[in-house]
Amino acid sequence: MATSVASGSGRLHFKDTVYRRQGCRQAHWVQNIAVPRCMQKELSWSHGVSKGLLAKKHNYFHPQIKEDCKQRRVVIKSCLREGYNKYFDFAVIGSGIAGLRYALEVAKHGTVAVITKAEPHESNTNYAQGGVSAVLCPSDSVENHVQDTIIAGAYLCDEETVRVVCTEGPDRIRELIAMGASFDHGEDGNLHLAREGGHSHRRIVHAADMTGREIERALLEAVRKDPNIFVFEHHFAIDFLTSQDGSDTVCHGVDTLNTETQEVVRFISKVTLLASGGAGHIYPSTTNPPVATGDGMAMAHRAQALISNMEFVQFHPTALADVGLPIKPREARENAFLITEAVRGDGGILYNLGMERFMPFYDERAELAPRDVVARSIDDQLKKRNEKYVLLDISHKPKENILSHFPNIAAECLRYGLDITQQPIPVVPAAHYMCGGVRAGLQGETNVRGLYVAGEVACTGLHGANRLASNSLLEALVFARRAVQPSIDHMRSSQIDRGASHSWSWPIMPKSLGDTVLNNIVRRTREVRKELQLIMWEYVGIVRSTTRLQMAEKRIGELELEWETYLFQQGWEPTMVGIEACEMRNLFCCSKLVVSSALARHESRGLHYTVDFPHVEESMRLPTVIFPCSPVNSTWSSRQLHRQQIC
Fold this sequence. Notes:
InterPro entries: FAD-dep_OxRdtase_2_FAD-bd (IPR003953), FAD/NAD-bd_sf (IPR036188), Fum_R/Succ_DH_flav-like_C_sf (IPR037099), Fum_Rdtase/Succ_DH_flav-like_C (IPR015939), NadB (IPR005288), Succ_DH/fumarate_Rdtase_cat_sf (IPR027477). The protein is an alpha/beta fold. 33% of the residues lie in helices and 18% in strands. The chain is built from 17 helices and 24 strands. The strands form 6 sheets. Strands 6, 7, 11, 12, 13, 14, 21 and 22 form an 8-stranded mixed sheet that branches. A 5-stranded mixed sheet has the order 5-24-15-20-23, with helices on one face. α7 crosses α17 and α15 runs parallel beside α17.
């Protein structure tokens, strides 16, 4: 891994997905980190992010639509299978809003494989409650939206990216409506626009408090009707298939594990879109669904893609605190239940357990302050008062309004004896969104030829140091659409070599180890996963320090070495794959990326707050960039499974 911080005025231009480097005036390399001289260059977004911070190097969902997908899978097996290889013009990893929207467009020009880890609806999109932000009110303006986004992003956003997204957003919403997505309307017949923290105007398009589910429903319905799109559910993406073309890395598809049949399936494609979501499960409490284990970010890192801004982990300030419910859930949740930002936007007030309203003491915007401010304020209250949660009260609003705006939240709380029309909701911060990810240009292109990214897995420069509420679905829509034309162009200029599959080593299932050994490996891996999550929460949480980050780096390294040693002592081999082990290596990889990036940023900006550098430092107003790792002395989590053998 190479972690560094560089400054100067460089540009990262993506033209025909060729990565062109330019020099920088100065660079500060983190101690004991070796960076290849050719990579010590400054970077910027496609047409002009401010400057570049370089950092050290070393992945949403609800049930509905299973039968159609199973029937479609039968068709796929009969007509497209050649051994365990499948050939497509486009491979899409992820079935959230970004992956599905992209698939529907490129399917007009070729065959599309949508590869999804669980059921197609199991994505971060499906869990998004609040809505999509877009300028659709005459009193609002693109300029207002741009400024709100940049302010929330602590002035680290790429302004050109922000303007593109805010300008194109309204058309993307209209396209969704034309496809059948149904959003709430007011009595005047116009879209009902909500307001959330950090927004100066009402601009949140929503479907009650289940917006993501409605968008996912509409997109999946369209996908099921498209004869050119084939959905492969329960296919876990393992690693990209890459080769070198001179100094360029080229993506040729992806290896997957069918978790139902326990078979490895290789997808060879002309173009690959990575839309796999975030990495919330590097922390013990997250609003993300169980599938969000950072798989896409880790895969891209191993495939030599640039990674950016991983220190900016957004903790949603208001996840349901089960410990404060009148009736406690019988089993621990796999993911925290989100209490949408819109509750505060509609007038919800935060109190500590002494029923003291505290937000006005932290920020003049009170409950409507951006998420990083609210999360830190709650964290401060909990530590000062030694309490486990705070209270969010919306009960002073009319009952009918509460139930019509937040039916899903009201029903969930009522299951545990809490009536939100009469009682405050116990809430606590939880890991929610990765503002960093795979570095993308203005058309979703990466420095790996043939690989595009969209959605939470991407770092486009929109969010900067903190995502403005409801900008995530918007970004996914805009970049999924912008990636279409360059993807089509690349597809038309590419050919699939059906004999090339043997050029990469084949992942193998560890059946030869026997059930007892495999059960022991799974049990130990689950224990290690919990240990890693606790380290991340304890040392790399909402408030950080250099000492604690260094401690995290040390403990994560030791834990990873201990786990890998155990694995290989049990007979595991580097080419073996299993979902628990592969998820664990991805969690290790993403955790190290977050820690390395956090250590490189010597200031407090947006979501990254450190007591050692409590103020914003203008000279540090640069994105963090993580370069591809060296294969020398790399761990399993940072090394590609498939050693390239192409001549």
